[in-house]
Structures are given as structure tokens and as C-alpha cells.
Amino acid sequence: MAQTTSKAHCYFCGKLLTKTGAKRHLLTHAYEGDKAQKCCLVKVDSPYLKDYWIYVEIPLTSNLEKLDEFLRCIWLECCGHMSAFYAARYEDISMNCKIANIPIGSVLGYEYDFGSTTELTVSFVGYTARKRQQKAVRLLARNEAKQFQCCICGKPAKELCCDCMYELDNPFFCESCAQSHYEKEEHFMLPVVNSPRMGECGYEGKLDRYEFEPNKLYNKQQQ
Ligand SMILES: [Zn+2]
Ligand SMILES: [Zn+2]
Ligand SMILES: [Zn+2]
Ligand SMILES: [Zn+2]
Questions:
Q1: Is the pTM of this model over 0.90?
Q2: 74 in Cβ contact with 54 (< 8 Å)
Q3: Which end of the chain is less enclosed by CB atoms within 10 A, N or C?
Q4: What is each CA distance from 167 to 99, 123, 146, 162, 172, in whole angstroms?
Q5: How far away, in angstroms, is 208 Cα from ligand 1 center?
Q6: Distance (Å) from CA 30 to ligand 1 centroid
Q7: Residue ranges of the chain assigned to CATH 3.10.290.30
Q8: How many Cβ atoms from other residues are within 10 Å of residue 153's Cβ?
Q9: 8-145: which CATH architecture?
């Protein structure tokens, strides 16, 4: 399968990272002072849509439920569907499983919504450390949002048509062309979002407040 060319900003220093170089770079930001909180560095991506990938850190004392909550916020939540982590096909792992009990090198499957399912791959890639944080899961890098062009006029797309998704090569529309398409066809439209769940069920990205902001680098806040 083709690898991605999508890049991601480092949330510590702002540097633009490739998917393959991100792990090594992010580990250089590990906190080395006293009372560090030991964490696992975790990569989450989509097995099919390779352009969508994030790196997060999560304390060893935390559990998979916290990771599930975070994934719902940044990428998934539409109507409170069920979700699960898997060690191998159909062998689920409890949401209570402690991060400390998952060996580095483990790759788990994850599914959100067992109807129109979004599948993710969760890789536990290394140990890191940070100053104690209130929030369990902290985002360290996220792919830059893909740009799509309106199929009618070529302007930046804001919506996609769920009814045309499998028929048109380009089901994306700018705001005004989306309006006309909707009025003419009465088709179901959803917003363009930076998520592998774009266009599924009723996903609109309402809980996603994690876009990269250059003026909010963690290094400036002394991590
Ligand atoms: Zn950095
Ligand atoms: Zn839904
Ligand atoms: Zn247009
Ligand atoms: Zn349509």
C-alpha cells in the first residue's frame, strides 16, 4: 500500500515532521527533570487512509479507556457508538487495561462504530516522559489537513456528498456549490474534516479542538 506524504507539525517546537521521522524527533523532547511522569509514545493511524496519523503520549498509569476518549474527541465521535481495542482479530482487550501492561512494540487494532466502522491501528512505539499533566492523553503531532477542491468550480471544498461518495471521483463541494447540489438533489452532505471518519454516519468533527496552533507550542509553556 502506498505510503503517505502527509506531514505533521511537532506540538513542542513546530518543526514539520514526516510520518517515518516523527517518532525519533518526538522522543528528543522527553522531559528529563525530577518527578517526570513516565509515558508511552503512541502512534495512531488508519490502515486504509494513510494520510491520517497522530502521535500522542499517555502515562503508564493510565488506561485504554483514556485513549478511546481522546480518539473520539479528535477523530470519531458522531452518535456515541461502541468501540473496542483488539490484540488480534476478534480478541478484544479491556478498556481498563493499564498502559504499563502493554509492551513497547505492540500494535493493537481499534474500531469505532460496528456499523459504518472506522478502523484504526494503535502502535506503542517507545517510552517517554513529561512534566506531570492533568490531561492523560496529550497530542504531540497530527497530520496537516488535506485540501480538497470543489468538483464544480475548483474552489477549496468545505463539504462532501455522502450520496455521491461512491459514484463520483470527486464528491467534494465548496459552500455555494454544496448548497445548489443539496437543493437540486436533496443529497446528504457532511463537512470536510481532518479525520479518517470524514463522510461516515453523521460525523462533523464537533469535538475536535486539536488543530496545530504555532503560538501554543509546548516548549514555550515549558512543557
Ligand atoms: Zn519538536
Ligand atoms: Zn454515528
Ligand atoms: Zn464550487
Ligand atoms: Zn450528491
A1: yes
A2: yes
A3: N
A4: 42, 34, 21, 10, 12
A5: 22
A6: 10
A7: 8-145
A8: 11
A9: Roll (3.10)
